[in-house]
């Protein structure tokens, strides 16, 4: 009888206690369709980090994180449907891994008061927080990537690339055209000749483009590709015996599956990155123990340490840290989307904190502000070794040329503000 | 000889090679349309399915492993074997024959006598279903395709040194011709010769032609339409496998392979839906036309002209010859 009474009493107390909702991080993923090869490892990394936090730490500030996956198939309309279907679940921040979906979601998240996080993709000028209140694209964006690639060429050419011919092979879409303005500005500044060569979607056939490269003999080739375009371009470059060490892709052209179809000939290919590579970080021991071995991995557990897995993992880490900061700032564990935005606007991550998380030097230390949603714009260069099957960083995380990029960001965001009657904030 | 003329010659040669690859895809469409009047929207997905099945069998991947593991809580992914390429191709052909039989029994057997648009819609459904099945069966990852006779002798890829050196001696500029494209051309020639021999000199081939010419007449002499259609879908499945191998060798086997069908449509418009030579000639014209246009005009208009110019070229032919270059002129009297 006493036991029954005690049980009843405990039950009443538990019922009276406030119910703690999960912290919801929707993942607009694509595990099917032509772009699934890139979408799967990213989505796995994003989900696995939150699973790790839940399993190892009991959630964020004692509240469990919940990742709601919605399949977009990299289709913009489906992405918007996913957003509409999940925003009522208490979504804190969206990370759609698609520039097309990002463009459609910018006005929606702004109206709904939810954060949109687009690291290394999306609308570049969203780095200007004065105009884009709800969008964050730290630590680096497309224009930083273009500048980082040129900086690398400056480094390997003793600081002088005047008179060099640099070709840009790009996906003939809004995404692929992103770096052109920046590269044009940089070509004026450094005196190199820019040769822009578009590749139509999906990029399965690129013979004309690589014949042109063979004829024009550019000193370097930069690539802005995604999906099958990457694999075909690297294969065609190998076919025409273009020196791989002179071929640099953006971070969306720098995954393992981009280089493996070309086999040994892909050795030496480079890509820009805004985070570290490989699985040699203490945090991945925890991922193995608490996530993979426990059978809780989002995928088969075989993507850990791959380039796009690390990117999704890194994005999740930054969002989890922002959520923890929001809890601290608001004084409540059960934060809302507005708390998340406030925390993102004053977000910072230090080298010490990354080391504590088992991710030393995984990405740059940086701070975000009301005006600067783009972070430091730093990045490094990774290089592929086919024999080892690994990427290695061949440079430190260095700065991009903000003297060139900032005016472009200001001009583009000002045009967006004028178009949409947005008054500048953070003044 | 001017540099531009030499470059144009190189572009033309590469256009011819690309045209062969387009023709390989178009052939599958032609076979099915000719025999059954069905425009098979699923032909590109069949190429994807065949290539994925080939790699899966060759590398000993357990089909539906994700599904099996999720339902049964197991951890099975591989059988542990690595089959010889030719053995894997043989097993894949068996799978494609099984698919042809299933398609006939489950779908088209029940749609006999329906309007062509209904049959076309059925193939759209089939395309999406097959894409989903391929995903479930083999996963969405990009798979490397290694077709090898021996461990040291695999499908060649990269610049052909002999052509490069010879043309360099002739013109002072070495032409780039991809060994894979040369292989594809030889394979396509053998394939077309085999198809012609099959349709001319075998009983089943003659029956196939009879059905293609007149269903009713073929039925009246005791030819089984059901069998012939299974046969035709099987042959189209084999052609899809060849196309899947050639395209998959370039980029790895991945889901965008299904989009190669888009490259076949202008070829069909130009060459006609009912002619095997039409598919070949159409492929060559489209290949050369789009590559030369991109070479000559592309730089003036910002490039990336190939996708749309192929259709412009096909439309131009349609205006003057609606049935395509080699298609049959259909006159319906009312």
Identify low-pLDDT runs of chain A: 1-18
Structural class of chain A: alpha/beta
Mean pLDDT of chain B: 92
Strand percentage of chain B lies at: under 5%
Q: How many E-type strands of chain A?
A: 16
CATH architecture of the largest domain in chain A: 3-Layer(aba) Sandwich
**Uncertain ranges of chain B:** none
Distance between the termini of chain A: 67 Å
Name the shape of chain B in a single word: globular
The largest sheet of chain B, given as strand count, sense and whether it forms a barrel, is: 2 strands, antiparallel
User: What is the number of domains of chain B?
Assistant: 1
Transmembrane segments (chain B): 6-31, 38-57, 81-103, 110-130, 182-202, 223-247, 267-288, 300-320
Family (chain B): Belongs to the binding-protein-dependent transport system permease family. LivHM subfamily.
Subcellular location (chain B): Cell membrane
InterPro entries (chain B): ABC_transp_permease, BCAA_transport_permease
Structural topology:
The complex is a heterodimer of chains A (427) and B (334).
Chain A: H1 2-16, E1 23-24, E2 27-29, H2 36-57, E3 65-66, E4 69-71, H3 76-86, E5 93-94, H4 99-112, E6 115-117, E7 135-136, H5 142-156, E8 165-171, H6 174-190, E9 193-199, H7 207-216, E10 220-224, H8 228-239, E11 247-249, H9 256-259, E12 270-273, H10 282-292, H11 307-330, H12 337-345, E13 348-349, H13 351-356, E14 366-367, E15 380-385, E16 390-393, H14 402-419
Parallel strand pairs in A: 1-3, 2-4, 5-6, 6-7, 8-9, 8-10, 10-11, 11-12
Antiparallel strand pairs in A: 12-15, 13-14, 15-16
Helix pairs in contact in A: 2-10, 2-11, 3-4, 5-6, 11-12
Chain B: H1 3-36, H2 43-58, H3 65-72, H4 85-106, H5 116-138, E1 148-150, E2 153-154, H6 161-171, H7 179-201, H8 203-213, H9 215-220, H10 225-251, H11 261-271, H12 276-296, H13 306-320
Antiparallel strand pairs in B: 1-2
Helix pairs in contact in B: 1-7, 1-10, 1-11, 1-12, 2-4, 2-5, 2-10, 4-10, 7-8, 7-10, 8-10, 11-12, 11-13, 12-13
